[in-house]
Amino acid sequence: MRQRLLSDGANELQYEIREIVKKAEQLKKLGQHIAWENIGDPIQKNHTLPLWIKEIVAELAMQNDTYGYCPSKGVVETREFLANRTNSLGGVQITAEDICFFNGLGDAISKVYQFITHTSRVIGPSPAYSTHSSAEAAHANHQPITYKLDPENHWYPDLDDLYNKVKYNPNIVGILIINPDNPTGMIYPREVLKRIVSIAKEFNLFLIADEIYINISYNGEQPCSLAEIIENVPGISMKGISKEIPWPGSRCGWMEYYNRDQDEQFNKFCETLDNAKMIEVCSTKLPQMAIPKIMGDPRFKPYRDEANKKIGARSKKIADILRPVPQVTFNETYGAFYNTIIFRKGTLKPHQKIKIDNPQISELIEKWVATETSLDKRFVYYLLGAKGVCVVPISSFCSDLQGFRVTLLEENDELLVKTFTDIRDGITEYLTS
Hints:
Layout: H1 16-29, E1 35-36, H2 51-61, H3 76-87, E2 99-102, H4 104-114, E3 121-126, H5 130-140, E4 146-150, E5 156-157, H6 159-167, E6 172-178, H7 190-203, E7 206-210, H8 226-229, E8 235-240, E9 253-258, H9 264-279, H10 285-295, H11 300-322, E10 328-329, E11 338-343, H12 359-369, H13 375-387, E12 389-390, E13 392-393, E14 403-407, H14 413-431
């Protein structure tokens, strides 16, 4: 080409959650049954929406106005409904004008980092949800800046690590919180969130909270939302319906802007995000119209509570299977629907493997691992080839730790137990080879 096309930041755009699918599909063609533990899609894992939700969507689909444009920031009645829900928490107060809809949080995330100056950075957790870390790194043409989540302390943030990195890196302008967390399933304690707010206040930063799982908690825990504790610090909360209804195919998410009046630069940033959506005209209308009808229905909370209860029960079953394995660090989860299992230091070796009976699959796995330097990815490939379980290596979540992420979504109890027994047996076979 006449000029170089790609920026240096393009190398940071990776999404192993779906990349691993390409390899799993190759094995599937060779006869391997695959248990998909790589992606957080409840529908794929046999979750069925209740009929009353489907009837609401079907009724909206019969209305003629469903098929037209909506305001660029989103359907007004829906934004008013969501603003009232946030205001009812008793913290920061917003209006419908402080909400903007996007085509899923992937769209929202890319917009946020796209319009931050290249020299300014947002520090996020590690392990990190790769959509955030990749987008932030791509905008800066540099590796992500992260604060540590500690697997030896319930995956809670290392606040000293966060504070020091913010203090000694003046390019940091924002702090990212994912609460409940993906990929660890950890819920940020209220006192931890308050400390992060105080750090943002001390260094004049803004906060981003990815709260897509804010209403998915179980086993006695309840997340604290950013709106409740942000005080007068500027911030953005990212929310959506992909996981909560769940309706991942809707690609419907939104941002809530908090305390725009506290900082003129932050206010202009929010205006830029709104303008970016205006250039695209608007986000998908049908799911926006459905939100007040579904979430405002008295049947929704009992439905969500029961779904959360089932996720919590599955979390306990997985804990019973995997926690006894001595070579891994296992934390029980209380939010979202993932768990991250970490191999203890020094347990993974480059010579380890699991016996694979199918010679074609074995040959393919050996080819993949021949050039693979990531020890946890080697394990993931062998687990895929030998047991047919598709998980994601934690090194792909912007982490120096070695392990893998699973979901808590399989609604078939027999298949759930089999899948995680296969994972346990795969770990044992791999580490003793």
